[in-house]
Amino acid sequence: MIPEFDSFNLPILSLIVLTPALVALVLCLVDRNNRALIRQLALMGSFLTLLFSLLMVANFDSNLGTMQLEEQHSWIESLGISYHLGVDGISILLVLLTCFTMPFVFLSTWAAIGDRVKEFHIALLLLQTGMVGAFVSLDLILFYLYYEAMLIPMYLIIGIWGGKERIYAALKFFIFTMVGSLLMFLGILYLYNHAGTFDLPVLMERLRTTHPLGSDQQLWLFLAFTLSFAIKVPLFPLHTWLPDAHVQAPTAGSVVLAGVLLKMGTYGLLRFAIPLFPEAAFDLQSMMAWLAIIGIVFGACMALVQNDIKKLIAYSSVSHLGFVVLACFIPNLEALTGAILQMVNHGLSTGMLFLMIGIIYERRHTRELADYGGICKVVPIFTIFFLLAVLSSIGLPGLNGFVGEFLLLYGVFSSVPLWGCLATTGVLLGALYMLNMVKKFLFGPLVHEENHHIEDLNTRELIYLIPFVVMMVWLGLYPAPFIKMVQPTLTLYVEMLQN
Amino acid sequence: MFSLPSILYLSALLFCIGTYGVLARRNILIVLMSLELMLNAVNIALVAFGRVHALGAPAGEHGGQIFTLMVLAVAAAEASIGLSLLLVIWRRWQSIDLRTLCRLNN
Amino acid sequence: MELTISRAEILALLPAAILFFTGLMQLFLDLGKSSANTRSEKTHLAMIGVTGILLALASLFIQGVEPSSGALYAGAMTDDLFGRMGAGVIIITALFCSLMAGGYLASSGNNRAEFHSLICFSGGAMVLLCQATNLISIFVAIETLSLAVYVLAGYFKNHQASSEGAFKYFVLGAFSSGFLLLGMAFVYGASGGSISLADIAASATHDDTLFAVGTFLMVIGFGFKVGAVPFHSWVPDVYQGAPVLSVGWMAVAVKSASFFALFRFVLFTGGGQILAQILAAIAVVTMLLGNLAALNQLSLKRMLAYSGIAHTGYLLIPLVLAVSGSGAIAGASIPFYLISYAVTTLAAFGVIVAISVATDRDDVQDLNGLARTRPLLALGFTVALLSLAGVPLTSGFIGKLMIFSDAIEGGFLHLALIGIVASLISIYYYLRPVVAMWFKEPSTSFDLIPASWGVQFTVAVCAIATVALGLFPDWLVNLSKLSVHAILG
Amino acid sequence: MDTNLLWIVLLPFLGFLINGLLGRKLGHKTVSVIACLLPVLSFVVSYAAWSRLVDGANALHWNGFPWIWLEGTLEVPFALHFDGLAAVMCLVITGVGSVIHLYSIGYMKGDPGYHRYFSYLNLFTAFMLLLVLADNLLLMFIGWEGVGLCSYLLIGFWYEDDANCAAGKKAFIVNRIGDLAFLIGMFVCLQHFGSLDISMLTSAEEITRVSAETLTFPWGAASVVTTIAVLLFIGATGKSAQIPLFVWLPDAMAGPTPVSALIHAATMVTSGVYLCCRLMPLFEASPAAMGLIAAVGACTALLAAFIAFTQNDIKKVLAYSTISQLGYMFFAVGMGAFSAALFHLVTHAFFKALLFLGSGSVIHAMHHEQDMRKMGGLRNRLPFTHITFLIGTLAIAGVPPLAGFFSKDEILFAGFQQGFLNAVGSAQLFWLISFLTAGMTAFYMIRCVAMTFWGESHVEESLERNVHEPGGWIGFALFVLAIASALGGFLNVPEFLGGHASLGHFTGLHHSTSDLSVDQLRSLHVSEWQSMLLSVLIAGSGLMLGIHCYGKGRDLRTSFNDSSAGKALGRLSASKFYVDEIYDRIFVRPFETLSHLLFILIDRIIIDGILVNGLALLTRSTGNVFRRIQTGYIPGYLLTFGCGVLVLIFILLNFLREGGAQ
Predict the structure, then answer these.
(1) B4-98: what CATH class?
(2) Selection from C99, C115, C180 nearest residue C142 by Cα
(3) How many domains are there within chain C?
(4) Would you say the ipTM is above 0.85?
(5) What pTM did the predictor assign?
(6) Considering CB atoms only, which of D627, D632, D638 is closest to B102?
(7) What is the pLDDT of residues D401-460, one digit of tens each?
(8) Is C219 among the domain residues?
(9) Does the residue C450 lie in any domain?
(10) pLDDT of residue D65 exceeding 70
């Protein structure tokens, strides 16, 4: 087995969560004009976090399905809130994904963000703390805290460094998300009042044994939680904030949004909404599944008719995450494993797509498909990377997307064949809109004069794109270790749901 | 001499007159007078209650009466503030109609 | 009857007394110079004010968190923790207002001693109000503070808006005083001639019509002070018209003091389910109307006025609980929310003071680009707004958490739900200044008069406190619980 | 455990990596060496493995590593399996592939995308080998979609032309439709067999176990095996261009001609047939599916042959011919003659590659002119190409003893046997169709030869002077393939001609005749003779008719063309039965219009317009109402206050009275 590195008994999860925030604090003290230092510090901070997350993996025993590396300290005792962190198979890959993505996001902003660099980096670092924190929190209020804490930096990132309609988009993003999360907040308080704890493991135990919920209560609470997560995912018909947010957000914002933030929704479903209220989840299974399936097809149809590349990929996210939501509601091992892998895969492929659109946007300052065409002649290396990301996104076997998609679809199929078949059409539609986009974007005659002298990828860009490709191939060809990390937890999870 | 209810009715009548004056009149001066009337109407009630309860209570319990005295003092202070504000208003608007004070709205 | 005054009685009266004395000192010292030099900062006034206030604060702290010494001055006042917390809020608010006053008044050419001493006078009355435990002391304290605040609202007597606002406040305030007094008379009559709250609580029954109506009229009287719908009409106009600093003082101190007194009254006497239902309806309407009407306001002060109404609505939820007899549940949230609200609102008004000093205006668009020109002020204001909106990591969040949690526990789920909806609506207008500060570019006419150090200090301390209370609220929550439980026994 | 198997796949992949990553810096020569050497090496490795099989070794196996591996639930390894069938396919792929690589050196000379081309081609080879060697269906699916990807990239290789990219996209999408069925087929397999291992899917016990199970559909019940077989076959129709998914293959001719030869004739398009052969026991267990396959195969063969009649683009003729021949193979599969299908696959790889490369040679010489109406008389200018092309033509037409003769004869006999000896009614019809098609094949191929090489020249004069035989690697490749096309048939000489059906035996697809009695065997041989004679006859008449129509007897052709029936048929053929147009009208355009509509209606108007912005507007206007009631008039405020107090007290008293009454 992997050797034990944990000789100092480090609070690894806290380190992962708090390092970015600490670096952000340090950045506050740096002179705002010293951009290089700011950038390097932030980059180092995020690499340090990545290092800690690898340490977490090294200390994670993938034979266990329980919470690991737990940390619990009393915090607001008077209100029953504690600082309780832990990681298991459901969250570990998402933490890894977050920590993996962030350094490259930082690298990608070096050329794109020239205005208010300091504030930008602080916002991104705080965002990272929020994201990782939400993934590892085991206290409902602590989770809610991080969940909301992500909102403000993201709001600022869209609103300050975004495009023309940024204010509208930022507001829409904020209010949409708030609608859901406030209802969830009410649900959390209701649960506390019912079972007397905010602590997730204790709460689940109590709901199962001493404080069972009535079916009406379950239903309403489930709806409150699910609404919040469904908006975040976003599930049809709550998705309209996403295209606006993506189009207006700066590259880094889009990458984080698509790469990690959206997963908060599906993660929330898996971690909270479903296991806390399994009966309600079961009762509403078919409604949720149909919404997810409509989302898959609808998102794909929408993506097909977009002229803005970012908008197209935003709608593709609606479609892709529809798969994940569908699988979340199928209580079998394959579907759930697929769902988790698919979250990671979507993060990688869509994250990379947004990074690359950012790269081309920096050079041409347009995202309209009509302004491109034939640029693969000018930027051959860019083309290769872009194609790889596209192929990963449409689930080409051998790349990461397929592994998750296959497990997920099989899981759904083995449970409800009709849903499986309908969802599978999403795979076809995915190829359709993506290849359409590729054709208009990269291929065809090189019409526009401005496109003749686009610069190809430079070294810095290669440095942050190559890791994505490596991960795509790794996850595509040898996903076994990742699956192994996930499996024991999900086995227990499925057993729990089936009881 | 007078029963408690009858005094209370008198008090209520005066209070209502005062309230009516505040609501219906537009002249600031008359509104101020009506406000004083409201306070003094309550004073009558307080004294009456105080008188009734003091009969059965141990010596020294004269809350109602003390209260009335306090209210009188407060009412005097209030009137002075009201009148000084009236002066300010008069200087600025050359009018003591309540309806003229409507610049701040929405 | 012997006239002896115990040490506890002296100590209890000390904070208010020091404040009154400070106010007098300021008046005397400025005597004869009042017409001249209204543009200078007059640091000596601020010095005296701050010293006096600090002394008052110190005298408050001497009492520590020790339990109450029982009824003082024959039941007229008490020195319990609840009252001390209220007094603390008011004195600290007075401190910040004094710190900001000099620069603000000087810039508008109105720096006279009256403002400073009126803050002290009304502050003293508020401290007394927080500690008052019989009807007479409550009435006297509330009237004293009101009279002082009427004048503060109309302090800029050359400003039409200021005078108009002050007069509106006065007329409506006096009108409501009539009802308050009537209510007190009814309660007095219904409780068999008891003046002190403890006796009233002992002798009154909730079914008694006279008592119920009396209680309700008293609640209305207080409701006017805190701006509950439908007694809120004065709030937006007065806030918009009055000098910013007076508004800040009103928004924080008057509201806190009134709520502390109201809660003390209600915790003592209760009110019955019926009254609770009516109050619940008032709470709902207040939350919704306050937030909805704030949506399209362009003036920051007017927006904060409606926001203040909305927060009154939230605070009415624990009041409903207390009236319905679940005071023990709602206990902790009352002092905590008020303190959190005070700190947050002070930070916000600090920024508005800075803006109106610099631009002589206070519209949302005057904040444009503040994040570029004054990043720290912008940050402080943002924190304050987020806290008002109830976003996590701020004290406002913890406050809302407590209030809504209490509502659920007390069986008022619908109040919590409407509260959530209301705070959702509020996000829209709280974000507007954020948008202006962070997302818009500064207008060229933006006058860069640096904020006075008093303002900077206030904003910084209050913003930090807002976040700190959001992160580590434990001690204050415990203190709040302690204070309320002491009243309930 | 045989790690060497991995090298078969890895070597071409290495070529892809090297050329893909460094190709731009390497120079054409190095690129060509690497690109051609590695498939050749792969051929050598395959040959070595093959010889071990010939020496009597059992199938070779590489256990690989866990791939999609849910311990105890769903275990799919990355493992390779090398048996007779895989060996034949590997040899064909690497063999024909290598030749085509070599050919490409000449054909692609000077192209700016030289290294890109070769890296794609190497990648294709690797994926194709993976498809063939895969130990389980899921791994095969990597290859399956991987070759589709390479096809997409190579069709759109000259990306500057929109049409090429569109063709590539079309190929990928149409293939994906089939792949969906493949995927769902795998799901059903997993659900009922519990595994995707080919050994499991083909084991007799498992199949008998599973065939007892049925599935219920809205339209009725079907056995699991049939469902799987049909789903996988739908997958195959995509890849192998059968009705209804054949529309992509003619368009795919937009790619460079060697690509058409390798991918769209010799290898990739035959993977559907390979899949059927691979899972022979499974398909055999489902007569219904077999019937469907035979029907689809026969109809495709006929339809494509009919369309090929009127095509003027030399590559389009070959493309439709490929579709038609693939239909043949499926017909064979449907008749249960898997060995014949595979045999035809192999010979077809030879002669169709030869034909494509020949056409490529012509196109190359004609500076990328593909219209046969602008050719003619090239026999003199391109004698070598002409000869080899003719060999290919005769081979495909089924002239003995060329390769196509043997394989096609076997297929026709299979149909004959099913239809007449076993008296299956539908098989008689299908046999008749394929029998006619054999004649048609001969006809349109000779038409193609005639229009290109014979008769008068229609070449532009400026061009004609420059037309010359492309030598070098192009000639070499044509030579090798011509020999293979001529002699390929001897790989599997049937027993009645004194052969041993060695290919069939080697791959294990041949149905043994050893259990037949001598009499039965003799009568079987008699009917085989009959069938063979018939097929030679039909091929001969097709050839003769073609030569007559396009040689000297032009009047026959013109008079037929002028007749109303001829006109109608000609239009129908030339328009390719309007299939593309019908698909466009029924599926593509409605879908796009619908998407636009939904976008505007649902996203823009209903969700964003009415729900989101409407709600916001409602809130704001309510806010405005509340704002407006704040009139600023003190009397109004006082009245509100007073009324508020009155109303509330009234309510309070009311409640109190009710409470008291209770």
Answers:
(1) mainly alpha
(2) C180
(3) 1
(4) yes
(5) 0.92
(6) D632
(7) 888 898 998 899 988 888 888 878 888 899 999 999 999 999 999 999 988 888 888 888
(8) no
(9) yes
(10) yes
